[in-house]
Amino acid sequence: MSGLPGPGPLDVPRRTLGIRIRRVPDGLLLGYRDQAMLLDGPAELIYRLADGARTVTDIADGVAEEYGIDRAEALADVMEFLGDHDDSGIFQW
């Protein structure tokens, strides 16, 4: 990451290898460490778009387009989600 608290718009997150992923009717079920997490809606999209090639801004653009929301709102939401999950181990920077 950029060294600042939380992710920055130009940071490039990627999904951590080795996480078990199962598609379920409500979204994606992630298994990592000794925990499980269900990602649905925008959270699922953010996870799928965090491919190590897209910046946080690129991911936010995808969320804004998919959900028809303002780009600035999408960027704030994506940065909050990634920041909230920074210590979870599901993303790497």
Automatic annotation (TrEMBL):
Matching InterPro entries: PQQD, PqqD_sf
Pfam families found in the cross-reference section: PqqD
Record's Gene3D superfamilies? Coenzyme PQQ synthesis protein D (PqqD)
Q: What name goes with this protein? A: Uncharacterized protein
The species this protein was found in:
Streptomyces griseofuscus
